[in-house]
Amino acid sequence: MDFSQNLTLPSVTSTPSQWYFLSLVNVRMFGIYYANKEIQYNYVYDELTAGKGTDEVNSMLHHFIKKIVLPNGHRQLTIYADNCGGQNKNNYVLKMLLAVAQMGDLERVELKFFENGHTKNAVDRGFVHVRKKFAKEDVWTTAQLLEVVNSASVSLALVHIPHDNGIMKVFRSVVKEAYKDLKSLQSYQIFTMEESKPGVVSCRATPSDTVVVQDLRRTYDDICTDAAKLHELFQLHLDKLVPPTPNFEKKLQMYRKVRPYVPKEYLNDPIYDAPNDEEEKIAKTAGQERRKAAAKKKKAASDAKRAESMGEPDVEEAQTSEGGLSTSAAEAKGDTQLRKRARKAQ
Q1: Is residue 340, in this structure, part of any structural domain at all?
Q2: DSSP code at position 273
Q3: Bridging pattern class, strands 76-81 and 108-113
Q4: Element (H, E) at 220
Q5: Which residues are within 8 A (CB) of 92 and not within 5 positions of it... i.e. 6 or more apart?
Q6: Average pLDDT, stretch 266-284?
Q7: What is the largest CA-CA distance in the chain?
Q8: Using one digit for the tens of pLDDT, what is the confidence trace for 15-51?
Q9: In the beta sheet, which residues pair with residue 193?
């Protein structure tokens, strides 16, 4: 499994020169290669639906398990992925798969990561088919893009995720409540989870290494996280993932600078709509917050620099200075007493 490079809308063979410096609409594509049937499932969604973080990866992987793996009667699953920590190799993905095993959906789950520097996997072949076909087509709308992805090869299957969907969920809070983090995760490449060993992850750096076992279950009132607790969390507490805030500047740019080149039959596609008042208000508020944060950061840096340039008196130096003044005062007092004695003697 892996993400492809972003596709962009619109994409035409004769790109107007004015577009080269514009930020167009990004479309994400996440591929999962189903080796048993030699089919690659491409999950496609645009930047207004979701990002490319760990919650998105968990959402699509969980959907694939529920809709493809289990209905086909599989009880064991092996997943290969690259070492991208922000998306694939992290505690959230690991703990979601651990929960799937502990709940009994699968008897055994193996998560294997390629060695650093080896990032090519089966889904990259499917992505090449899509990009080649995409480069030859004039793609103005989301519907056209989906058709290109779906028809790029007979071995590819499309899963479109629209703005309003039931796939993207927030897994972070749920798995965090159920399990502790696995220690030294980045030092291992192979992780095994089994239904017969609830909450336990077996870790290895290489296939021949000694297995390191970690039990990640949290304990509440002396009771470890069990399958019943997990079922409750996954059924009742998986919240919908909030879509990203629309980029007002990009939407305005699409409307003013891209829309004039769009053929009339495609002008009704939402990506060319003008930004509304609510989006403008949100953008202004966000801009104000960014400027305030930047000003605060700049002031803090300026104050620190000024304090450093002025310099604070060294404690030891100050103590030495104070000691010097005290000694001088004592010496002056002693000299005065000696002069008084000398006068009396005369």
Answers
A1: no
A2: P
A3: parallel
A4: strand 219-220
A5: 54, 55, 58, 171, 172, 175, 176
A6: 85
A7: 124
A8: 787 788 888 999 999 999 999 999 999 999 999 999 9
A9: 109, 201
Question: Distance (Å, rounded) from C-alpha 123 to C-alpha 34?
Answer: 9
- Give the H or E element holding residue 76: strand 76-81
User: By C-alpha distance, which of 61, 114, 94, 91 is closest to 191?
Assistant: 94
Residues 141 and 259 in one domain: no
| DSSP single-letter state for residue 240 | E
What is the token pair recorded at 23?
Answer: 């930020």
Closest C-alpha to 175, from 97, 246, 242: 97
Determine the residue type at 185: L
Please tell me the number of Cα atoms within 13 Å of 132 on its side-chain side: 9
Mean pLDDT of 181-192: 95
Task: Tell me how many domains the chain contains.
Answer: 2
Q: What is the pLDDT of residue 345?
A: 52
Its pTM surpasses 0.85:
no
Cα 319 to chain centroid, rounded: 53
Average pLDDT over residues 73-92: 88
Omega before 313 cis (within 30°)?
no
User: Higher model confidence: residue 321 or residue 239?
Assistant: 239
Model pLDDT for residues 96-130, shown as the tens digit of each residue: 999 999 999 999 999 999 877 656 788 999 999 99
Q: Are residues 151 and 235 in the same domain?
A: yes
User: Partners of 59 in the beta sheet?
Assistant: none
Task: Classify residue 51 as left (phi > 0), alpha (psi -120 to 50) or beta.
Answer: beta
Distance between alpha carbon 161 and the CA centroid of its chain, in Å?
A: 19
Give CA–CA dist 65/111, Å, rounded: 14
Q: Please tell me whether residues 206 and 266 are part of one structural domain.
A: no
92 in a domain, yes or no?
yes
Range of the domain at 127: 2-240
Last-in-domain residue among 212, 240, 268: 240
What's the pLDDT score for residue 312? 53
What is the pLDDT of the chain when averaged over all its residues? Answer: 88
Contact 214, 203 (CB under 8 A): yes
Give bridge partners of residue 25 from the DSSP assignment: 9
321 has pLDDT over 60: no
